[in-house]
Amino acid sequence: ARSGTVGQALLSILSRGDLTESDWEEIEETLLLADVGIGPTTELMDTLRTRTKVLGTTDPEVVRGVLREELLALVGPDMDRRLAATPVVGDDGEPHPATVLVVGVNGNGKTTTVAKLARVLVAEGKSVVLGAADTFRAAAADQLETWGSRVGVDVVRSDREGADPAAVAFDAVKQGREAGADSVIVDTAGRLQNKQDLMDELGKIKRVMSRQAPVGEVLLVLDATTGQNGMRQAQVFADVVDISGIVLTKLDGTAKGGIVVTVQRELGVPVKFVGLGEGADDLAPFVPEEFVDALLS
Amino acid sequence: MFANLSDRLTASFKQLRGKGRLSEADIDSTVSEIRRALLEADVALPVVREFTANVRERAKGAEVSQALNPAQQVVKIVNAELVEILGGQSRDLTFAKHPPTVIMLAGLQGAGKTTLAGKLGTWLKDQGHTPMLVASDLQRPNAVTQLQVVGERAGVPVWAPEPGNGVGDPVAVARSGVQQAREKMHSVVIIDTAGRLGVDAEMMQQAVDVRDATDPDEILFVLDAMIGQDAVSTAQAFADGVGFTGVVLSKLDGDARGGAALSVRGVTGKPVLFASVGEKLTDFERFHPDRMASRILDMGDMLTLIEQA
Ligand SMILES: Nc1nc2c(ncn2[C@@H]2O[C@H](COP(=O)(O)OP(=O)(O)OP(=O)(O)O)[C@@H](O)[C@H]2O)c(=O)[nH]1
Ligand SMILES: Nc1nc2c(ncn2[C@@H]2O[C@H](COP(=O)(O)OP(=O)(O)OP(=O)(O)O)[C@@H](O)[C@H]2O)c(=O)[nH]1
Ligand SMILES: [Mg+2]
Ligand SMILES: [Mg+2]
Description:
heterodimer; A: alpha/beta; elongated; B: alpha/beta; 8-stranded mixed sheet; 12 helices; binds guanosine-5'-triphosphate; binds magnesium ion
């Protein structure tokens, strides 16, 4: 599903021999269609023209290689993309579970991602506790609980609809700590970044959680279908809860997720995982080379 | 850096102020600014191409107005073109001659279908209808529970004979739902379905089977306003796959510009009927093409200026 017609178009342009002006346009369109955005695309095209001029070539293979290289440089091949999932010793000298907070806008795959992460950690032999801090959306805690039983981990939730999400997050970390769990992963309600009250609430969730254990990882979930608004999402969430990694979901569809090129460049926050389906096993590490090849192929 | 298209156009026309005419060169630079603005608003590339071509034509033939400077004149043309495309055949819901009216919801994962079922239920109930919701998403964990909670909040009954979470046949549930509605004299049936990808042939076939089993009066395609260039392939896949009669744009309470509205309209020709503007059951309204047009290009102020001219 990941090699679309766009990519084939690019391949055929690039194997056509010398590049004409309309070939350049088509290369530009490939990037635009992948949601890379007009700003970064224009910069990339300028770099590409300059570099191929310096190289004195219009050899399609070389041009292709250069574009791939530039994109790779943007998505940062040398970043640490591991999940911070090892228990830590806090300032108090006590052992704490590694805590992960999962955030993002509505419906982009947070709850499913929490389950997938739990699955990965359980497979590594770690003990995991999940916190259902989405107390808002209809049946959100039930959804996480179903996932918890599927992947075999405990879920801390409130049985009261509309309970304080920060309190649930606090309880989850506390119970994880008391049970000697290796990791606690907290699911939060989807929220649009322009809702100030909801963003304040998220800041509070993180602060309250960190009274039990330092929050080791804040993962922003981004839906691969997201267009240019994804950058705004990343900026605002980063301001409020200082995100440490990105999970790019729904990459099993036709969307290429090109918005993360800009996000990673602007914020320097690495994409750590990609979501490739609705099942518990459909999570993979983000591999920059694979991502760029899919973008161009 | 200019915040929006109006500013950019105004700047690019600064030296022309007072001239009051659109030369070929004016039009060229304008069209490239418009292209940029549309792309920043996530309007899909093929639609951008067609749109800018139309604007170019109209700008060429435009009558030179005394009251407006060139920037205003172009903005006016762009806006008129946008409103025309977005609103072309705006219409109400189609109701069945012999109730129940069947409305099927379809769309990508997480687009806002289940929430919409509750909103539609509320809205229709307020208008004196007696809607019923049908839980045909038996796949997503606790989708059935979610719809039940939504139905309870809306005070609308929910037909949920199967527990879901992978158990039960969504087609059978949809069919029995319509049967139930007929027996219990519900005037409208709203069928919630599982989210699916355009490229998932098996799931698309399931949607077709639900459709064929219930013969809907409306199939509403629910689309997240934050979607980017993928709007085209997805809208096309649903149009070709199950077919739809109208579009609901969701999450318009966010700050995405919502170019998808234009993309889906441009690609499938189907009208956007409603906007979803929040998580609450009442965050739901009819779609306003004029508001959407100025939102896409962020042209609010300029339009006010033009109206005053
Ligand atoms: N195809 C595909 N679907 C996914 C993926 N991840 C999640 N989904 C689906 O997307 C929908 C939303 O997923 P959730 O995990 O509930 O999303 P969320 O962000 O928790 O949603 P809210 O809590 O309502 O904001 C569900 O139907 C999931 O099955 C993915 O990687 N690929
Ligand atoms: N802010 C905002 N959130 C919305 C809107 N519509 C739906 N949502 C939220 O988006 C998320 C997904 O909504 P659902 O109704 O579960 O979406 P769905 O299409 O049924 O998802 P699947 O069944 O998993 O495919 C939830 O968190 C909803 O509360 C809207 O108009 N604005
Ligand atoms: Mg969730
Ligand atoms: Mg649903």
